[in-house]
């Protein structure tokens, strides 16, 4: 009975989410997926780009695709006019056979892709966020991070204050919470600022937590304790923040391990197995989520 209620409310939340206007993250993900599948772009070519830059690439690619007129058929017709009627019929028959074979091949590939995605969907847990829809005009007005501060009010009241170029500020208790709002460029900016501060000094206290999270993301070493003690952890959940391309493993010890989706880390096969035995939490279904699941599955088969 409880399981049925969970499925009912999950389906209801998913239906409500689908009926909402697309958010900034969703619109960006859709355009990136189109650019990868149709425009031939790689993830590394798109990461860190602003919404405005992605939209320009999308508009250019979309225009090229829809204004394209195939010339092969015209060339074949002109050449066939110089040949006898029998040769022309053979050529057309061969072309039709090739087109039929190409269509059948495409259908088979699409069926295989759809079957694979359906299998991968079983490893996804869609948890809609609280994002509100925003107009296209406002999407390009995001200001870069220019400074950060650590605020320690008491032993139980500590947080990080993020300051952007327009002087707006927002406070976060931990790095994981920042990822709800950050894109890849935000993460890179914060890493640069924190690294600059601790070039000549060692972080202490609450600063060590943020520095440790960023080092794990950008400068992983198999000798770090976080990787060497994997067998002592129990995975509680793992979540993907596709707006910045980072996923996080939450362990029973309270440790959170943050990683870039395109980077390989010293995770054991056992850890990868535990990840797939649970479900990847996502805000919405996306190609980056499927890529992460494919990679995780490949690491188990090694």
List key phrases describing it.
12 helices, single chain, 5-stranded mixed beta sheet, alpha/beta, 3-stranded antiparallel beta sheet, 8 strands, 302 residues, 2 domains
Topology:
Blueprint: H1 2-19, H2 24-37, H3 43-46, H4 51-67, H5 72-80, H6 85-121, E1 124-126, E2 145-152, E3 158-164, E4 169-172, H7 175-178, H8 184-197, H9 206-218, H10 225-228, E5 235-241, E6 246-251, E7 256-260, H11 269-277, E8 280-282, H12 287-301
Parallel strand pairs: 1-8, 5-8
Antiparallel strand pairs: 2-3, 3-4, 5-6, 6-7
Compact summary:
Residues 1-27, 70-114 are annotated as: Disordered. Helix content is 52%, strand content 14%.
Strand-pairing-aware structural class = alpha/beta
User: How many alpha or pi helices?
Assistant: 12
Please tell me how large the radius of gyration is.
Answer: 25 Å
Low-confidence stretches: 131-140
Q: Considering DSSP H and I runs of 4 or more, what fraction of the residues is helical?
A: 40-55%
């Amino acid at each position: 009975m409880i399981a049925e209620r969970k499925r009912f409310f999950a389906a209801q939340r998913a239906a409500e989410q689908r009926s909402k206007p697309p958010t900034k993250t969703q619109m960006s993900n859709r355009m990136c997926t189109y650019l990868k599948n149709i425009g031939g772009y790689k993830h590394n070519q798109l990461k860190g780009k602003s919404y405005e830059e992605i939209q320009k690439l999308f508009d250019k690619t979309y225009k090229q695709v829809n204004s394209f007129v195939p010339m092969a058929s015209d060339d074949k017709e002109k050449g066939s006019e110089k040949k006898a009627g029998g040769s022309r019929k053979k050529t057309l028959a061969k072309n039709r056979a090739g087109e039929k074979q190409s269509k059948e091949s495409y259908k088979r590939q699409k069926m295989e892709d759809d079957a694979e995605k359906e299998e991968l969907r079983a490893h996804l847990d869609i948890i809609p966020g609280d994002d509100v829809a925003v107009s296209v005009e406002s999407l390009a007005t995001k200001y870069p991070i220019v400074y950060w501060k650590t605020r320690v009010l008491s032993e139980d009241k500590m947080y990080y204050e993020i300051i952007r170029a327009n002087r707006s500020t927002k406070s976060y208790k931990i790095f994981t919470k920042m990822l709800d709002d950050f894109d890849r460029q935000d993460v890179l900016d914060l890493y640069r600022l924190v690294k600059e501060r601790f070039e000549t000094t060692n972080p202490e206290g609450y600063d060590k937590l943020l520095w440790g999270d960023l080092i794990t993301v950008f400068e992983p070493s198999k000798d770090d304790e976080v990787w060497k003690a994997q067998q002592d952890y129990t995975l509680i959940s793992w979540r993907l923040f596709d707006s910045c391309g980072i996923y996080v493993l939450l362990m029973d010890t309270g440790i959170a391990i943050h990683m870039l989706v395109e980077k390989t880390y010293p995770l054991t096969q056992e850890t990868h197995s535990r990840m797939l035995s649970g479900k990847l939490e996502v805000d919405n279904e996306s190609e980056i989520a499927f890529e992460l699941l494919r990679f995780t599955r490949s690491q188990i088969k090694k």
